[in-house]
Write a structure and sequence with these properties.
Length: 335
């Protein structure tokens, strides 16, 4: 039996819950969970904001643990090896997208917390293809958020071949944005943080931003016209997107990582005349995850986390919901 924490209704408190996972598939592994980050996607699923949650619901898709068991056909992972598991727990492995290396875009990909139980538990199961070994020189307690937040901000750098000479701005210095600042700085970019929070201005500079720009000051936005090659939006709220588009250089890109649910109100002429692009992306493939882990290990990048015990899960969720967490919340069996 697997011991977990589950909600039994939308927005409900998590309660102790046990389930029998059945026999282990030949291509699956069972991970003994050590740490699990809490992501805003966990909150969205908990509240059924996306209309796809099944109850009882066990959140958790930023999982760090060790291989406790493996199927007969799993050869690339070893018992006791420390690994991570993110948003996806498996792929079809046969579609053109998977065969092209873009497993994260597979239309048949299995979500770790969609139609299955996640990592707020003592163990979790997943297809071995979605599990990535954790380098020895990465702190396991803070590593969980790298498997969702970290790869989400790293993936566009690979997909769009962002050069070290690029000028990049980040909207939203929170769970995603604070990791983005660190990665972009180490990548070699000139980094600007859009923020109107005085306290976060100082923190943004310490995390890797070279300068900050007050996003509520229209004169500052106007003065930044034509500056940025790339803007990463990590927020889930509606903003004046046209004002941000105006700060892009010709051929610049406004890229969405945060899932704003409201339609975009965008003028087309600035896009056409400047050959600018609007795009979005999810998490990355297992190969991209491995590349990111090597990069953050080399540059000693780590998410800033607050840790809670697993039996404090509801307190931890409330902390994330408050918006006051700095910057990611992690459940840990060793805290």
């Amino acid at each position: 039996m697997i011991k977990a924490y589950a909600a039994f209704e939308a927005g409900g408190e998590l309660q102790p819950f046990e389930y029998d996972p059945g026999s282990l598939d030949a291509l699956d592994v069972e991970i003994a969970v050590e740490h699990c980050g809490i992501c805003h996607s966990d909150l969205s699923m908990l509240n059924n904001d996306w209309g796809m949650t099944q109850y009882p619901f066990v959140p958790g898709h930023e999982i760090i643990g060790t291989i406790a068991a493996k199927g007969d056909h799993v050869n690339h992972l070893k018992l006791g090896q420390r690994v991570g598991l993110g948003w996806h727990a498996g792929y079809c492995m046969t579609c053109h997208t998977c065969l092209s290396g873009d497993h994260n875009l597979c239309t048949q990909a299995q979500g770790t917390i969609i139609g299955r139980h996640g990592g707020f538990a003592d163990k979790v199961r997943a297809n071995a293809s979605s599990v990535v070994a954790l380098p020895d020189n990465i702190d396991p307690q803070s590593a969980g958020p790298l498997f969702c937040g970290g790869i989400t901000v790293f993936n566009p750098l690979l997909q769009f071949n962002i050069q070290p000479s690029a000028k990049v701005a980040v909207i939203g210095i929170g769970g995603l944005g604070h990791i983005a600042l660190q990665i972009l700085n180490a990548w070699g970019c000139e980094v600007t943080a859009f923020t109107s929070n005085e306290a976060k201005k100082t923190e943004a500079l310490a995390l890797g931003a070279h300068q900050t720009l007050d996003s509520r000051d229209s004169s500052k936005l106007e003065a930044a016209a034509g500056q940025f090659d790339l803007i990463l939006s990590t927020v889930a709220v509606k903003l004046d997107w046209n004002a941000y588009i105006a700060t892009l250089r010709p051929k610049g890109r406004l890229h969405f990582l945060g899932a704003t649910l409201e339609p975009l109100d965008i003028g087309v002429f600035p896009l056409i005349l400047g050959q600018r692009t609007i795009s979005g992306s999810p998490v990355g493939s297992p190969a991209s995850l491995g590349t990111m882990l090597d990069f953050v290990a080399r540059h000693e990048i780590k998410p800033v986390v607050e840790t809670y015990r697993f039996d404090q899960v509801n307190e931890a969720l409330a902390r994330l919901t408050s918006g006051e967490a700095r910057y990611r919340v992690v459940l840990s069996y060793s805290s």
